[in-house]
Specification:
Elements lengths: L3 E12 L2 E14 L2 E7 L8 E7 L4 E7 L2 E6 L4 E8 L2 E14 L6 E11 L2 E14 L1
Antiparallel strand pairs: 1-2, 1-10, 2-3, 3-4, 4-5, 5-6, 6-7, 7-8, 8-9, 9-10
Length: 136
């Protein structure tokens, strides 16, 4: 069994002049060369959702499960298909990642990436993400 570590998570998402910040507490664990961060999102009008972030050397994968289901993969220089599914329906997504940098050591630290998001083939915005993971 891989040891789990309690962590504080801060996700800062910027698109144009708009910035949103999400904070949570969760668990970090390692499997091989990968770090996994798992946390429950704050309950909202869409219900309860658990998010898993898989940090690899050259890619990030985000999987959401629960009342909202989603999957997005970020690989620099590549377009990757994903989806966002709520009780109201499913939306096909595509991310084109421009850069991905990480100063995290075994998952603890800062990881940043930027990407263009396409929803059902239409450009939905350019995003810059800053993920900060700290020991609790």
């Amino acid at each position: 069994m891989t040891a789990k570590q309690r962590v504080r998570i801060r996700i800062e998402s910027r698109s144009g002049s708009e910035t949103t910040v999400q904070k949570a507490r969760g668990e970090l664990y390692r499997k091989g060369d990968h770090s996994y961060i798992r946390y429950e999102e704050a309950p909202n009008e869409l219900g309860r959702t658990v998010t898993l972030i898989k940090l690899e050397t050259d890619q990030i994968r985000i999987i959401r499960q629960g009342d909202v289901q989603a999957e997005q993969t970020f690989v620099p220089g590549e377009k990757r298909a994903g989806f966002y599914h709520t009780p109201q329906g499913r939306l096909e997504l595509e991310t084109e990642t421009h850069e991905l940098t990480s100063e995290a050591v075994h998952g603890i630290g800062v990881t940043r990436w930027s990407y263009d998001l396409y929803a059902s083939g239409t450009h939905a915005g350019h995003y810059r993400i800053k993920l900060l993971i700290q020991e609790e």
